[in-house]
Amino acid sequence: MTEGGDDERLLEELLAGKHRALARTISKIENRAPGYRDLVSELYAHTGEADVIGITGSPGAGKSTLVDKLAEAYRERGETVGIIAIDPSSPFSGGAVLGDRIRMGSTIGDMDVFVRSMSARGTLGGLSTATADAVKAMDAFGKDKVIIETVGAGQNEIDIVRTADTVAVLVPPGSGDDVQTLKAGILEIGDIFVVNKADRDGADRTVQELRDMVAMDAGDGFGMSGAGHHGADAMQMDDHGHDQGHGQAHDQDPDPHGDEPETWIPPIVETIATHGTGVEEFIEELENHQQYLVASGTRAEMARKRYAEEIRTLLREDVHGLLEDELEDAGGIDDLAEAVRTGETDPYTIADELLEPVEMCLEDLEREG
Which residue windows does the record flag with biased composition (Basic and acidic residues) (predicted)? Predict the structure, then answer.
């Protein structure tokens, strides 16, 4: 059978719910094997039903254990789960070094919990294009929930927003300095904050520090114009300093026409993942956020932005490939660099010359159109 025929059968088996086909599809995507683009293109028509949840946070926050308990709880509700664990890349193979997480033990043997480790490919915490495509494969397969767990390396975690509908940031009990550090990076992208290991000393203090920081998130905010998904409303506090209306959509000060959109105030959930404590409350907040996304129209806007970024990424990759070919035809980058060194030319002239055939092709297409 031809390669195209193999891919067609692979797609049919994936859509029929065969986990072996899902595994093969993700491997093809991750390896960027011949034909993967056509395969991913076919997936789009079958996506859009899964809730995509991002779990991120600093190393040691207990992400894998919480993801395991989260998957177990979803299965008890009769929902199917796909988990993508973004692991640090092996310096030798480029692959994921932790494999299929040994810490996710509660759902071993349950075929309706599909766990796949993927390499961060040199971008700590960053989601490669392959990861986003793997999410589409799980979505098209029919998984009700797709959970992405990232490395947890700071500012680069913002990449997760491009793929996840809801981002949960895990924060272990610690000093105020830890939370201040988070504020400069992944704190800004959280739709839900989870203080895991809440039975440890310092948990109450960490919860209060997070409340204070979310309360200060008034002004520019981080909504759809920034990294995160939530709006800029400050939290409402009662007389005891506790947040009110947490995890709910709230109206901003409405204008006379009632056109102001609702905004999301990130809730703070306390969990002890090793015992499963607080997992149900966490699921409830995840559901609240999904409902908010649909009711406010934010989910549709996020999808448009996500697809726009995918288009830009693919164009960058393709144009880069074309230019690499042009570089080779021009004698290679080293020869061109040497020509600059000896004063024969300069980088700007070289760039213009290499781009000229690409620009001519685009002009020809415009005239034909």
Answer: 237-260
Per residue in 339-367, pLDDT (tens digit) is 999 999 999 999 998 888 878 887 887 88
pTM for this entry: 0.80
Report pLDDT digits (tens) over 102-112: 455 666 667 79
What DSSP string runs through 33-98? -TTHHHHHHHHGGG-S-SEEEEEEESTTS-HHHHHHHHHHHHHHTT--EEEEEEEPBPTTTSSBSS
The domains of the chain, with CATH numbers, are 46-296 (3.40.50.300), 311-368 (no CATH)
Total count of residues recorded for the chain: 369
β partners of residue 151: none
The closest of 185, 143, 213 to 56, measured between CA atoms, is: 185
Euclidean distance between CA atoms 215 and 272, whole angstroms = 25
Please name every residue paired with 270 in a beta bridge, in sequence order, or none if there are none: 195
